[in-house]
């Protein structure tokens, strides 16, 4: 759907969405003004579609990915970039960072849009309107959680009493709000999602919100705040719904080339179609540079993206411990004329592996519909929560379900004890393999008070002295595990405080 075809009330703000590193500009329509847009169910439905469209804006999707995934140890930057993503990767954040600003702005656009619809629909409305209200509550809760993870410290540090982000309430002018605490933002997101789940009764496709989508996000939120019982409860509700199934075999190996609607494991995804521009502004352009057939056609790379970010040597080594692991399907060796290439800019003998989770949907090189929630996470949320509750066997049961799907050996309590590992150790190892490149790794470590250690070549070594030292360790208590509040917000709102 083209943005200039969407007649939504938010257009009264006359916002301009610009795609990072792309010349294309999309100006939202001004066909319906702010006062008259929400006077009938048809307009409300159209406005809700518009809220989803704001979420789909390329500056949000791309910046959100860079802020979350590039903090982890599954990726390596092969050469410095003029894009602000280099600072995301190297932990050299600045208050004027482009991606932090994009992410903050677009997330609050979604919240403002959702709030107006939420306020316009009474709780005693028709089932159809309740459904739409619930969808907007979900989108609001999703944005609140995403924002507080990026700009607020992990909940488990200080029991959520650290500064979070401003909470904008429906029906209340935004003004110049101060930052709420992390705990307050989590509570707001949970309240929105619980109400959303109560209101939604339609099992919509996985590119829209529904009751189970709200439950899945609740499981993730509770896990991040250390409420293990509720993390299990809501994961079980998703699993018990029967709406989703783990993909198996070849279907799993081709997971990320499928459209969301054709994928039984996806719970919620941000949908892009092959009629939309997916070029150098797409997430996949940073991971891949080639034609759709480049992975099988020698010498075909080089014309669709930058290919600056690769699977880290450390991640590849973990994956290679089980050569039959189907998750090898989500990385691809960069070969020219059958010869595995190395990146001499960071090290003389490090093979380069493309990441392909954001490429080749419907055979188009950089087309992807990023998956936000999927069923495998529900099992591994339960596994982590059970490990922390002392239910080691239950944790292993869910880990083994995912390992069996990946085609690798199951684990036993005796076996992990012999390796001096705990149930939580193996859960986090499995989460790393399963959710690599999906923006979860750094949060998995930091909420569990574990450091992130990059011991592999990459531009993060440019921070080191001497620069031959390739190891970078980020402690969970480091100020750099979160990003600065955008400087333009600080300048325009005297009530906002900056992160240290």
From TrEMBL:
<protein>
    <recommendedName>
        <fullName>RagB/SusD family nutrient uptake outer membrane protein</fullName>
    </recommendedName>
</protein>
<dbReference type="InterPro" id="IPR033985">
    <property type="entry name" value="SusD-like_N"/>
</dbReference>
<dbReference type="InterPro" id="IPR011990">
    <property type="entry name" value="TPR-like_helical_dom_sf"/>
</dbReference>
<keyword id="KW-0472">Membrane</keyword>
<keyword id="KW-0732">Signal</keyword>
<comment type="similarity">
    <text>Belongs to the SusD family.</text>
</comment>
<keyword id="KW-0998">Cell outer membrane</keyword>
<dbReference type="Pfam" id="PF07980">
    <property type="entry name" value="SusD_RagB"/>
</dbReference>
<dbReference type="Pfam" id="PF14322">
    <property type="entry name" value="SusD-like_3"/>
</dbReference>
<dbReference type="InterPro" id="IPR012944">
    <property type="entry name" value="SusD_RagB_dom"/>
</dbReference>
<feature type="domain" description="RagB/SusD">
    <location>
        <begin position="356"/>
        <end position="500"/>
    </location>
</feature>
<feature type="domain" description="SusD-like N-terminal">
    <location>
        <begin position="62"/>
        <end position="223"/>
    </location>
</feature>
């Amino acid at each position: 759907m083209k943005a200039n075809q969407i007649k939504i009330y938010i257009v009264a703000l006359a916002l301009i969405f610009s795609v990072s590193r792309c010349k294309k500009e999309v100006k939202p329509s001004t066909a319906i003004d702010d006062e008259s847009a929400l006077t009938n169910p048809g307009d409300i439905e159209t406005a809700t579609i518009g809220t989803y469209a704001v979420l789909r804006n390329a500056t949000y999707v791309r910046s959100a990915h860079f802020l979350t995934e590039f903090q982890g140890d599954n990726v390596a930057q092969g050469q410095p970039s003029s894009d602000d993503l280099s600072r995301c990767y190297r932990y050299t954040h600045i208050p004027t960072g482009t991606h932090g600003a994009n992410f903050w702005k677009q997330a609050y656009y979604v919240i403002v849009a959702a709030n107006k619809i939420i306020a316009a629909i009474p709780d005693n409305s028709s089932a159809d309107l309740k459904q739409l209200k619930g969808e907007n509550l979900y989108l609001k809760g999703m944005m609140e959680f995403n924002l507080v993870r990026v700009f607020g410290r992990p909940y488990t540090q200080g029991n959520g009493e650290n500064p979070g982000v401003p909470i904008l309430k429906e029906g209340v002018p935004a003004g110049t709000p101060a930052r709420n605490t992390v705990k307050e933002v989590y509570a707001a997101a949970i309240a929105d999602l619980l109400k959303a789940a109560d209101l939604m009764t339609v099992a919509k496709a996985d590119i829209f919100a529904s009751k189970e989508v709200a439950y899945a996000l609740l499981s993730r939120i509770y896990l991040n705040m250390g409420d293990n019982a509720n993390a299990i409860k809501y994961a079980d509700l998703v699993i018990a719904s029967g709406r989703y199934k783990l993909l198996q075999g070849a279907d799993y190996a081709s997971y990320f080339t499928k459209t969301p609607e054709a994928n039984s494991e996806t719970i919620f995804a941000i949908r892009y179609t092959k009629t939309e521009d997916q070029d150098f502004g797409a997430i996949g352009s940073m991971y891949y540079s080639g034609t759709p057939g480049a992975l099988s056609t020698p010498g075909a790379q080089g014309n669709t993206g930058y290919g600056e970010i690769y699977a880290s040597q450390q991640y590849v080594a973990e994956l290679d411990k089980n050569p039959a692991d189907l998750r090898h399907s989500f990385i691809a060796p960069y070969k020219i004329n059958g010869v595995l290439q190395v990146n001499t800019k960071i090290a003389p003998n490090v093979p380069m592996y493309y990441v392909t989770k954001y490429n080749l949907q419907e055979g188009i090189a950089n087309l992807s519909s990023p998956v936000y929630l999927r069923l495998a996470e529900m099992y591994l949320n339960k596994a982590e929560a059970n490990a922390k509750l002392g239910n080691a066997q239950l944790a292993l049961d869910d880990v083994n379900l995912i390992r069996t799907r990946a085609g690798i050996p199951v684990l036993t309590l005796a076996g992990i004890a012999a390796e001096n590992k705990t149930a939580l150790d193996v859960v986090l190892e499995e989460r790393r393999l399963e959710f690599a490149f999906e923006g979860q790794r750094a949060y998995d470590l930091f909420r569990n008070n574990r450091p992130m250690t990059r011991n592999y070549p990459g531009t993060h070594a440019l921070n080191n002295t001497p620069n031959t030292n390739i190891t970078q360790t980020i402690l969970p208590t480091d100020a750099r595990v979160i990003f600065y509040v955008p400087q333009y917000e600080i300048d325009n709102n005297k009530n906002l405080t900056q992160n240290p």
